[in-house]
Design brief:
elongated, 9 helices, alpha+beta, single chain, 298 residues
Amino acid sequence: MLRERMPFHFIKLRKIWYAISILIIIPGLISLFTQGLNLGIDFSGGSLLDLKFNQATSVEQVRNVLQGFHLADASIQSSNETDFIIRTRELSEEENESIVTALDSELGGVTLQRSERVGPVIGRELIAKAIYAMLAASVLMVIYISWRFEFKQGVAAILALLHDSLVVLGVFSIFQIEIDSAFIAAILTIIGYSINDTIIIFDRIRENLLNKKKGEALEDVINSSLWQTIARSINTVLMVEIILASLFLLGGTTIRGMVLALLVGITVGAYSSVCFASPLWFDLKKQERRTKPGTARA
């Protein structure tokens, strides 16, 4: 009955899934090497001013005022005619107050909604801690999956997580979307979500292997397992993305970057759990059988 509900064979089409992943990842890698990431002040150091003007204001008007403080090269982003985010070199409290006062007097009134200052040393520490956190999480996940299932499944799962992270980093690099410390939280959340989906699929594969029919090929067992779990994966992703889409549209600019990372990462994570991790594990098992002469086909 289940076979009638399987329109295609996931494992037999694995080269197509690999090609899709490569086509998505390569542009991101090129962008990462050529233009890098748009690091926010959490990582690069500097000051941020989130301002709301009382009347319509242009970027040129704001830049003219900043020029008097030798900040003509500051990054100025406008979400509409009154809301601006200004990123500059690290400013002292006195410089901050002077800039806000000048903008207030020359451009018809302004409200300071947010002010942040991060030194470059703190930025480097955040990057180092983020890398350590992801490495530690990867090692612990390999250990757990190796204990619960087998080492090759752990390797496949971690490569799938690397796949997800590269896609998200590539998207943010291509479109030069600013990343901050919340972006790291989003990446770790994506890793947790994706590995959970992968483990559920691996668990179903293990159950089906214990009950497989004599002569049934490993690729058919994996394919059946994927079809048995795909409805759960799709439904879960859709429910999460409805919430994330609402947050992206209504949550405000301060969390938009993190929510976008989650939207991209959770979508890609669901894809990689089904179309990348499991086929990759099959290829690793296939290679293992080739290196052991006389081993019967699984």
